[in-house]
Amino acid sequence: MNEDNTGETSVPEAGIAAPRQRIRNITELAQLAGVSPGTVSRALAGKTLVNPQTRERIQTLAREHGFRLNQMASRLRTQRTGVIGVVFPLGHENRQHISDPFFMSLFGYLADELTESGHDIMLSRVIPGDTEWLDRIVDSGMLDGALVIGQSDQSAVIDAVAARYLPLVVWGSHRPDQVHCTVGVDNRLGGRLAAERLLAIGKTRLAFLGETRGPEIADRLAGVRDAIAGRGDVTLRVMPTPLSSEAMAEQVAEQLAELGDDLDGIVAASDVIAMMVLRVLHERGARVPQGIAVVGFDDLPLATRTVPQLTTVRQDIAAGAKAMVGALMQRIAGVAAPATILQPELIIRESA
Questions:
Q1: Under CATH, domain 2-78 is a member of which superfamily?
Q2: CATH topology of domain 187-314
Q3: CA distances for 279 relative to 2, 66, 237, 346, angstroms
Q4: Coil, strand or helix: which one is 149?
Q5: What is the pLDDT of residues 244-273, one digit of tens each?
Q6: pTM of the model
Q7: By C-alpha distance, which of 88, 154, 74, 158 is closest to 121?
């Protein structure tokens, strides 16, 4: 019973427990748990160095006594921020948005991998205006490492930073002489698979639609050219096509009008371009694939929702995201993880 300042006594209601004393620091929690402060710190951080029973007991005591680690102090001690930068450099495609379906698919998988590993994310969409944009990001002091989505026309800038900054991994094409670590599909093989599919169904008047100033799309075009090499009966027109949604619809319509009837097969550099092609062909009354066959690249979830369903080259985005985060964690730990080259797969549906 408790006596208040009026002289009356109060009795706690049945079933209501008196609040436990709040623990203020790791030392107090360690004394209560009968372990060292270091063990408490490792247990609260979820480290496997502490056996599961002890870890669970310490975490339960912390919850019961309202104790949480001071994350800022912990990060100062470890010299880690717990934050990974995810950067989209839009050099040649400066009107493209992060809402692009490919970007969103890859970012979603990356976010899952990073949050499950206990990291926060800092997202940056960068339109490079000088050669130091990546230096400013990695030297900000806010990041443990950076994932760069696409090389755009910035490979030289990325190489310069990668030469001095280890925890950096890039989604893109691999070159034998490049410095930066990449994860990405074999784009040249993917382009060849796309063109070979068109050739296999008798298409010989081909067009490639895509902006080739970035290495990924340039490699896809090179693969198309590999497939038709030595085929004197095959023609190829290359039409630079932007990925920005504002410009794409009008430009695709103009390009298809320019190509006219001298066309029976299209390799689109992305599923997004391929979907726009299908829409324009539908509006023109063209028959797909009987008149014009279309092959995309990416195999986004939307590829099965077009009419007709899209034949495309699949790059395993989920596996790529896992490989990127895995390589970055190695590099944060000081290990120079190598590049990963994923194998493309032709997915045959209705459009070719």
A1: lambda repressor-like DNA-binding domains (1.10.260.40)
A2: Rossmann fold (3.40.50)
A3: 78, 58, 20, 22
A4: strand
A5: 666 788 888 888 888 888 899 999 999 999
A6: 0.77
A7: 88
